[in-house]
């Protein structure tokens, strides 16, 4: 098994297509496939903030559910959009408002298609993936070693939001512990969620959310090669989104 784990896309469809091209994928019937049968894995946060969340949903749904040529784990933005589509009372902020605006601009037939696609994608997804073939665990915001193999509310919160303390920064974002520094496992933990300027490797963990929607880049991590590939973002740089991170 050879995989390409793709960081937080946040509606940046052009950069995603560019990344697939750089990774050596070819396009047939508007779907990317690799001559060496590599498996793309989407690490969550497909939507919100970026320009083309609907297009990303439809592409990932087709690859993961219809064609079964890719894998996906959900992120916190995915969880919020899922709850929105179920009709729950969620606040349209922190990026969700951009996805909702795109969705509401569609005709009713297309709205039904997009809603069905995303709900199906989310409900069929594992919370995180254990991939012994490449000695790795894929989780949106990471996972502590003692939680691997477990499920439940505590695990779900960690995987979606990180190791949150319950406290907040001045701008309202949750304060998170740097769990990666104490990770001692021999499996790769591949995650995203927190924007970093460069892929951040600590012990056997790697954060590949290089803040595409904030103007930096979209990154993939290849296993078993242990190689990162990044394409530049076409979005304006929002420097403060990176100021809390190494």
TrEMBL record:
Pfam family, one: Metallophos
Ranges for domain Calcineurin-like phosphoesterase: 1-196
Top-level taxon in the UniProt lineage: Bacteria
Gene Ontology cellular component annotations, sorted alphabetically: cytoplasm
InterPro entries according to UniProt: Ap4A_hydrolase, Calcineurin-like_PHP, Metallo-depent_PP-like, MPP_PrpE-like, Ser/Thr-sp_prot-phosphatase
Molecular function as annotated in GO: phosphatase activity
The protein's name in its UniProt record: Bis(5'-nucleosyl)-tetraphosphatase PrpE
